[in-house]
Amino acid sequence: MTKPAQAVPSVPARDEASARLDALFAALSDPVRRSILERLDGADMLVSELASAYDISLQAVSRHIQVLVSAGLIVQTRTGRISRCRLDAGPIAEAAAWINRYAKYWDAQFRTLADHLLEIENRRGQ
Hints:
This protein is mainly alpha-helical. It contains six helices and three strands.
């Protein structure tokens, strides 16, 4: 006797904003990519300049850069064989806005902790 098929819960269709956040968080999940973004903070750099800081191949750094470009975090311009990268922090603001929607949860926990610590301090002072 075979079991009846179970219904699979439906997953809401991914919208464009959700896809951008997925790409952003995936890009930020790698320490080399986060380091590349830090190095680009305040200065445009050539891919070769970026690559010189890492003990990985130029090709590996280029792949990391392409992930960051796909996530919208880097704008890459080419002049002949020269490739220059510039940070575009706009998508990070979008992610920060998404994260801040949940601030109410940790704010309440911090208030509870502060109240508890104040209570402990008051007991010690008595």
